[in-house]
Write a structure and sequence with these properties.
Length: 355
C-alpha cells in the first residue's frame, strides 16, 4: 500500500531538514558562526514545524492552516531579530527537496501549498483568523490585561466580580474580558513583547479569576441533561473548554470537565459509562484536526446509535470555516456566550439538535 501524502512528508522529514540546513550552512557559513550549534538546533526545529503544518494542511484538505502558520512564524521570527530571508530560503529549499522527492499530484499539492503560503506572507491578514469570531470586548478588558501583566491576581478578580455585580453574566465576562485578554497575551508573546513566563502567569491568574467568577454566577433551574467536555489528545489549551463547561453548568446542565489532553481510550470509556446527552471537544491547533476526525470515527464505531451528539469548538475550529462538519461533528459554536444559548435551547427543534 502506498503511504498517504502526509505520511510521506513525515517519513522524509529528517532528510528534508538535513538537506535544508546543510545547504544553507554551505551557502552562508557566517550564520553558523553567529548562532552556533544552538542556533542550528532551533533552525532544525523550525523546519520540522514547517513540515508539521504542511501535513496539517494536507490532512485537512485546505491551504489555510499552512498559510496562517507561515504568517504566524514570520512574525515570531521577525520580532526576535531573524531576517525574513531566513524563512524564504528554508521554503525555497523545501520546495527543491519535494520537487525531487515527490511526483505527480503529490508534488503539485505540496508545491502549491508552499506557493500559496508564500503569497500569504506578502500580504498577511491584520488579525489571525480565530479573531473573526471574537465578539467586541467589554471596556474593562484592557485594565484586566494590565492586571495580568502586573501580576495583580486579587485586583483582577475584583475587576471581574464588579462587572458581574453590575449585571454581566459569567459567560460574558469569560469571553469579553478574560478570553479577549488572553488572545492579547498570545499576540504579545508572538510579537516578543512578553516572555513565556509572563504568559504562564497570565494563564494562572485567569484560571483563579474564572474559578472565583464561577462561584458568583447565577444558575438556571437544573435540567436533566449531562455533558462531558474534553480536550482532544495533545490539546493543552484548557481555559476555553472550562468556559464552555461552566456555561453549560450555569444553564442547568450537569457537566463533567475532563480538561486537557485526554487520551482517546479513556474518553471513549467515560462517554460509554456516563452516556451523556452531549460530548464537547476542544481543538486548538491544526495538528489536532486529523486526530479529532479519527477520534470521532472511533467513538461512533464503538458506540453506534448510543453515540451522543458531538459539539466541536476551539480556536482552530473557529479559524477554518465549516471544518467541524468535515471532522464528523454534529454542532459547533464559537464561544462560551453562544454555548450558554445552545445549552438553554438544546433539543428545541424536531431532530433534537439545536443546529
Ligand atoms: C495560555 C496559552 C498556552 C498555555 C495553555 C495553558 C492552559 N492550561 O490552558 C500552554 C503553555 C499550555 C500553551 C501551549 C502551547 N501554545 Co499556546 N497559547 C496560550 C494563549 C496565550 C491563551 C490560550 C487561552 O486560554 N485562550 C483563551 C480561551 C478562552 O480561548 P479559546 O481557547 O479560543 O476558547 C474559546 C473558543 O475557542 C471556544 N472553545 C474552545 N474550546 C471549545 C470547545 C467546545 C466544545 C466549544 C463549543 C467551544 C470551544 O470557546 C472558548 C471560550 O469562549 C494562546 C493565545 C490565544 N489566541 O488563545 C496561545 C496560542 C494558542 N498558543 C500557541 C502556541 C504556539 C503554543 C505551543 C505550540 C507553544 C510551544 N512551543 O510549546 C504549545 C502547544 C500546546 C498544545 N499542543 O496544545 C499559539 C498558536 C499559534 C499557531 N501557530 O497556531 C497561540 C495562538 C499564541 C500565539 N499568538 O502565538 N499555550
Amino acid at each position: 500500500m502506498t503511504n498517504s501524502l502526509s505520511e510521506q512528508l513525515r517519513n522524509s522529514a529528517d532528510d528534508a531538514i538535513a538537506m535544508t540546513v546543510e545547504k544553507q550552512c554551505r551557502l552562508h557559513p557566517e550564520v553558523l558562526e553567529r548562532f552556533g550549534e544552538r542556533g542550528l538546533k532551533a533552525w532544525r526545529t523550525d523546519i520540522r514545524h514547517h513540515i508539521d503544518y504542511l501535513c496539517a494542511a494536507v490532512d485537512s484538505g485546505r491551504d489555510q492552516p499552512f498559510a496562517d502558520y507561515l504568517c504566524w512564524v514570520a512574525e515570531v521570527l521577525k520580532s526576535r531579530g531573524v531576517d525574513a530571508q531566513h524563512l524564504n530560503h528554508s521554503l525555497d529549499d523545501l520546495a527543491g527537496f519535494y520537487r525531487e522527492r515527490l511526483t505527480g499530484a503529490d508534488q503539485a499539492r505540496v508545491l502549491g501549498l508552499l506557493a500559496t503560503g508564500r503569497q500569504a506572507l506578502v500580504k498577511p491578514a491584520t488579525l489571525p483568523a480565530e479573531f473573526r469570531h471574537l465578539p467586541p470586548a467589554l471596556p474593562q478588558k484592557d485594565a484586566y490585561l494590565d492586571l495580568l501583566l502586573a501580576s495583580q491576581r486579587v485586583a483582577a478578580h475584583q475587576l471581574v466580580s464588579e462587572c458581574m455585580t453590575a449585571g454581566a453574566s459569567l459567560a460574558t465576562v469569560n469571553v469579553r474580558i478574560i478570553q479577549a485578554a488572553m488572545y492579547d497575551v498570545g499576540r504579545m508573546w508572538q510579537a516578543n513583547r512578553i516572555s513565556v513566563a509572563q504568559e504562564h502567569l497570565a494563564t494562572a491568574i485567569s484560571q483563579y479569576v474564572m474559578a472565583n467568577a464561577f462561584s458568583l454566577a447565577e444558575f438556571a433551574e437544573p435540567m436533566a441533561r449531562t455533558a462531558i467536555f474534553a480536550n482532544v489528545e495533545n490539546n493543552h489549551h484548557a481555559l476555553g473548554l472550562r468556559m464552555i463547561s461552566d456555561a453549560f453548568e450555569t444553564a442547568g446542565w450537569t457537566a463533567q470537565f475532563l480538561g486537557a489532553n485526554v487520551p482517546d481510550p479513556s474518553l471513549i470509556g467515560q462517554v460509554d459509562a456516563l452516556r451523556p446527552d452531549l460530548l464537547g471537544l476542544s481543538v486548538s491547533m491544526p495538528q489536532q484536526l486529523k486526530t479529532t476526525r479519527e477520534f470521532i470515527g472511533s467513538l461512533r464505531a464503538e458506540m453506534g446509535q448510543a453515540c451522543p451528539p458531538i459539539l466541536l469548538g476551539g480556536r482552530t475550529i473557529n479559524a477554518l470555516d465549516e471544518v467541524w462538519r468535515d471532522l464528523g461533528a454534529d454542532l459547533w459554536v464559537a464561544d462560551a456566550e453562544q454555548a450558554e444559548l445552545l445549552a438553554k435551547n438544546f433539543g428545541a427543534d424536531a431532530n433534537g439538535r439545536a443546529r
